[in-house]
Design brief:
Helix content is 2%, strand content 56%. It has 187 residues and is mainly β. Strand 15 and strand 16 form a beta hairpin.
Length: 187
């Protein structure tokens, strides 16, 4: 199946030079007489490299035959992350390169979606936000009561997140996995 350049929305996976890529950023410029140019930032699902590409007019791209499956994150050993298929109980590994920044928010036992290209795992898709415990946070300066004061906190996965001053160690917070930003305290 082929894709037109206007199908390249954020998150779309396609093949370019026989390699699978995911669209990270997308912008379209409509030119006179109905022509258009699409500028995209794309990330290789094989080695993690990011490219800037411009596609014009009626260029056709090859869609990637991607299968999505629910899997459970088990553990990691260095830069290799291990998962188990929820239906077949088959275990497999994915490199940190394919997982990228999402690794900062993976917790043992999490259910995520893995994307398989020709039966080979190439990427995972976390939930848009996750609940995670705060394991360390800086103390607030007494008298600093402005409502928008942010401080550093370390969450259970080891990632550092900016949180409001009222968040304490042990609190459960919700974090946006796409941006790494604090969303809310979970009650």
């Amino acid at each position: 199946m082929s894709l037109s350049i206007t199908d390249l929305k954020k998150g779309t996976i396609f093949k370019f030079n026989n390699e699978p890529f995911r669209v990270i950023d997308y912008s379209q410029k409509v030119m006179g007489r109905g022509g258009s140019i699409v500028n995209v930032r794309i990330k290789s699902l094989l080695d993690g490299k990011v490219l800037e590409k411009t596609f014009k007019g009626n260029e056709q791209l090859e869609s990637a035959d991607i299968e999505n499956r629910n899997v459970q994150y088990l553990y990691n050993a260095g830069n290799i992350y291990f998962f188990m298929d929820q239906k077949s109980f088959e275990q497999f590994e994915i490199s940190i390169i394919a997982i990228g920044e999402q690794a900062k928010f993976l917790q043992e036992g999490d259910i995520v979606q893995v994307q398989l290209l020709d039966g080979v795992p190439v990427n995972i898709e976390l939930a848009k936000n996750v609940a995670v415990a705060v394991t360390y946070t800086e103390d607030v300066v007494k008298g600093d009561t402005a409502s928008n004061v942010m401080k550093n906190a370390v969450i259970a996965t080891g990632a550092q997140v900016k949180v409001p001053a009222f968040i304490k160690q042990g609190d459960l917070i919700r974090v946006d996995t796409r941006t790494g930003s604090y969303l809310e305290r979970v009650k």
